[in-house]
Amino acid sequence: MFFPPAPFHFGDLLRCAELVETAYDMCAQWSDQGHCRDSNFVWQPKGPSDLDYSAPLWGAATFLRFFKNHSPFAFLAADGEGTAFLVFRGTQTPSDGLEDLHASQTRYSLVDAFGDAHEGFVEIYESISPHIRAALERLPDSTQRLLVTGHSLGSALSTLAIPDVLHNSRFGPKQVVHYNLASPRVASIPFADAYQATGVPTYRIVNSADVVPQLPPPILGPDTFRHVGVQLTFSDNHGSVEANHSSKGSYLAALDSLREAGS
User: Fold this and answer.
1) Is pLDDT at 263 greater than 60 in this prediction?
2) What one-character-per-residue DSSP string does 68-96 give?
3) Residue 213: inside a domain
4) Within-domain flag for 22
5) 7 with 201: CB under 8 angstroms?
6) If pLDDT is split at 50, 70 and 90, which confidence band does 65 have?
């Protein structure tokens, strides 16, 4: 894997990949507790113990275009030394999967004149956005750096979070770095151009054997899709679509191997 110059930092990327697993575990705990609603969910974060964790950040995926399935999608964590992490999980429920398939584009309404994006991703992200903004406001004033991350659907949501964070929080482009894993294409060419113009360093980690980063195709009916950021590629073929896309078995395992090789 090619490592670009700063502000890329391998340690930050590895920490983000570890926290993505914490986000998946958060959803697993919610499932184990019977898919209870917000205030009844008791989350015990199993991520790095040196971080302080926010409450789960909830969102809604639409089922059959009418019913909202609320679930924990994200969280904030802070290290007490000036860095915070905004972390999103990927697809875990049938409703999430249905939203993944709603690939026609709609206006990204959280920031004026930012272009169109994948309808299903936008619907989920807009439901999480108010909770993200409120959680960011609760971070201590000493927080000077925000790392944003996710895997798969979570990478789509983390991409949509960047313009929202820049325009609706105190964090500016020099304070934000975006590391995402296995991201699908998220948005239109005008959105991608507007995103690039923000100047937020964005590193998109891709397993060349993973099909998800190739979806949706660049042209889908009347819509065009373009990736954002700098692609960093590794090759790790486990023999199945699911295994090649796995956050833990493919992406985190590859990063762990790189860490061991460099130690």
Assistant:
1) no
2) EEEEEEEEEEE-SSSEEEEEE----SHHH
3) yes
4) yes
5) yes
6) low
Helix axes 253-262 and 10-32, enclosed angle (nearest 10): 150
Q: What is the pLDDT of residues 33-60, one digit of tens each?
A: 999 888 899 999 999 999 999 999 999 9
Burial code (b: 16+ CB inside 10 Å, e: under 16) for 7-39 equals ebeeebbbbbbbbbbbbbbbbebbeeeeeeeee
Written as one letter, the residue type at 115 is G
Tokens representing 242 are 């699911």
The reply to whether the predicted model has a pTM over 0.85 is yes
Count structural domains, the chain. Answer: 1
Q: Decide if pLDDT at 72 tops 90.
A: yes
CATH code at position 216 = 3.40.50.1820
Residue 80, domain extent: 10-31+49-246
Distance of CA 158 to the CA centre of its chain: 3
Q: Which residues pair with 61 in a beta bridge?
A: 69
Residue 39 lies in a domain: no
Residue 263 placed within a domain: no
Per-residue pLDDT at 1 = 81
Give the position of tokens 């991409």: 159
Q: Which residues have CB under 8 Å from 94's CB, separation 6+?
A: 63
